[in-house]
Write a structure and sequence with these properties.
The complex is a heterodimer.
Chain A (H helix, E strand, L loop, with lengths): L3 H6 L3 H14 L1 H4 L3 H8 L3 E5 L4 E3 L7 E7 L1 E6 L7 E7 L3 E2 L13 E4 L3 E7 H10 L1 H39 L1
Antiparallel strand pairs in A: 1-8, 2-7, 3-6, 3-8, 4-5, 4-7
Helix pairs in contact in A: 5-6
Chain B lengths: L1 H78 L4 H40 L2 H15 L6 H30 L2 H27 L3 H42 L5 H11 L5 H18 L5 H23 L8 H43 L5
Helix pairs in contact in B: 1-2, 1-5, 2-5, 3-4, 4-10, 6-7, 6-9, 6-10, 7-8, 8-9
The chains are: A alpha+beta, B mainly alpha.
Chain lengths: 175, 373
């Protein structure tokens, strides 16, 4: 049993509380929430501790939610166990990943692995749906923020696609 | 020379490889032995602890079912801006008041009805009651006119009634009269409703990282399906009970209220339920009238209710997700009746449904998640 197991059970609550407020304020996802809303939100957040090289989730597994890095470093890889392994991102404290899984149960598009001992905060679909049911105002606020974030990422992807298309067309003309 | 010098090196590398292999094997063996020792200690510990834990299992299960039933109501009230603690308080006050009113007005009447029903059954010698039923059956089913078959059927019926009644009554009284249940159930239900999320969070917290997301998903799905199933079953039973009460009242069957409630409860048992539900009504009709006259009316009424249930009520209300093969249902019910009489029959299918949901979700999770590495 990895030592991270006992860290998850006997987490130091006081230290977490202080750091949690600081980290949540840094994340755009939660930065607009009021203090009372943040308090409600903290009730559904899960703390997890991952040792260096421990996998958070594998590509292809059903996703259940998103993670915010409290401290440490996470690597996101495509084809992690194959020769064609490709690093997609290297994330640090305050950054988040896996947010698509908050909306549906589609498989994870990449593997996430702790590059050093890392503390993460997990927000999961069942808890989010339950929150929407109990506190629709707060739930809507979070959903809207999620939609804005996804729209932003879609816009970025569109721009990148446009760039690639332009590059391809230029290369065809040069040939 | 070269060869000479090579041989010892080769031997050395072979020796090293073998040595490494032995070390790895030893480590694996020690690891396995250590794991086995842990499991054996856990099993020994559990076998010692289980006798002490069993008495609190019944209030825990009842509280869990009650909290599953009430959670949507509490969530809805919280949704309307009422603090969760206050919402639970209001619901407890409401149901507490309802139970108090029932105890004051309904229970004495119900008690009287049960007492006079049991008196009526006691006044009739069980053998004569069975004889009467036998006569009715032989009139309806000609094959039973054969005295040997009729005697055999009579003896079997007698045995069945005796064992079912004694087993279930003992069980029901043991559960209801238990003081600890009356005191602890509201208390535990309150905390399940108030701090259910904390309990779930703690359980999840104890799960190793590799199984964490899978367990979270599993717990959520099981909770959702079980909640839907239990709420659905209870609603269907209430509707069947109400319909049976109305039908029996209009057929002038005495003790219609108690029999209607029994029919509603028995409806939770698939296939056997309607028969178990109709039997008391037929029995009472035979005992009270001394003739099988209203039996046909009762059978038709119960058949109509069953038709309504199968065509309209159950398909609309009960979650379609919990489906059990008919053959399995019969086996499960027979096992349940063997363990706890009618009470066992009542709990058999819901308990099996719970186990089925858990196993189904576990299999799904094992297929979709990588559990090693």
């Amino acid at each position: 049993m990895p030592s991270s197991y006992w860290n998850n059970i006997f987490e130091k609550n006081g230290r977490h509380q202080l750091n949690l407020d600081y980290v949540l304020k840094k994340v755009p996802f939660f930065s607009q929430l009021k203090k009372s809303e943040l308090r409600e939100f903290k009730r559904i957040i899960h703390h997890r501790y991952y040792k260096k090289n421990e996998v958070i989730f594998y590509e292809g597994e059903p996703g259940v939610g998103m993670f915010v890095i409290e401290n440490g470093k996470i690597g996101i890889y495509k084809n992690f166990e194959e020769d064609s392994r490709e690093e997609l991102a290297n994330l640090r404290s305050g950054e988040f990943f896996g947010e698509m899984a908050l909306l549906d149960e589609s498989p994870r598009s990449a593997t996430a692995i702790a590059l050093e001992n890392t503390n993460v905060l997990g927000l999961f679909r069942p808890d989010l749906f339950n929150l929407i049911n109990r506190k629709p105002k707060l739930g809507n606020k979070i959903l809207l923020r999620l939609a804005q974030m996804l729209a932003e990422r879609l816009r970025l992807s569109n721009d990148e696609l446009q760039e690639i298309k332009q590059l391809y067309e230029n290369s065809v003309i040069i040939r | 020379m070269k060869n000479n010098s090579l041989y010892p090196q080769n031997n050395k590398s072979n020796f090293n490889q073998e040595n490494q292999f032995v070390v790895v094997l030893n480590r694996l063996l020690i690891k396995r032995l250590f794991k086995a020792a842990i499991w054996i200690s856990v099993i020994i510990l559990l076998s010692q602890v289980i006798p002490f834990v069993t008495p609190i299992l019944a209030p825990l299960i009842i509280s869990l079912i009650l909290s599953l039933l009430l959670t949507p109501l509490v969530d809805e009230m919280e949704n309307r801006g009422i603090n969760r603690g206050a919402a639970i308080g209001i619901i407890f006050l409401f149901f507490g008041g309802l139970i108090a009113i029932s105890l004051k007005f309904l229970i004495p009447g119900l008690n009287q009805e049960i007492q006079s029903l049991s008196q009526a059954l006691e006044n009739q010698d069980p053998q004569s009651l069975i004889d009467k039923l036998q006569i009715t059956l032989t009139q309806r089913i000609p094959i039973l006119k054969n005295p040997e078959i009729a005697r055999e059927v009579g003896a079997r019926l007698h045995e069945l009634f005796k064992s079912l009644l004694s087993k279930s009554l003992n069980m029901i009284f043991a559960i209801l009269s238990s003081f600890t249940i009356i005191v602890t159930v509201p208390f535990i239900t309150f905390f399940f409703l108030k701090d259910g999320h904390r309990i779930k969070k703690f359980i999840i917290q104890c799960v190793p990282n590799r199984y964490f997301e899978m367990s979270l998903n599993l717990l959520y799905k099981i909770n959702l399906q079980l909640g839907n199933y239990i709420r659905g079953q209870l609603l269907v039973s209430s509707i069947i009970a109400a319909l049976s009460i109305v039908a029996l009242y209009s057929l002038n069957v005495p003790y219609f209220f108690v029999i209607g409630i029994i029919a509603g409860l028995a409806n939770m048992i698939p296939y056997f339920g309607p028969v178990v539900g109709a039997l008391p009504a037929i029995l009472v009709a035979v005992v009270e009238n001394g003739s099988p006259g209203p039996v046909l009316g009762i059978i038709i009424a119960f058949a109509m209710i069953q038709l309504l249930d199968n065509v309209l009520i159950s398909p609309v209300i009960v979650s379609r997700s919990v489906q059990i093969h008919p053959l399995l249902v019969i086996i499960v019910i027979l096992v349940g009746s063997n363990i706890g009489g009618i009470f066992g029959m009542l709990l058999a299918v819901p308990t099996f449904a719970v186990a089925q949901v858990i196993v189904k979700e576990l299999i799904w999770s094992f297929r979709h998640y990588r559990l090693s590495g």
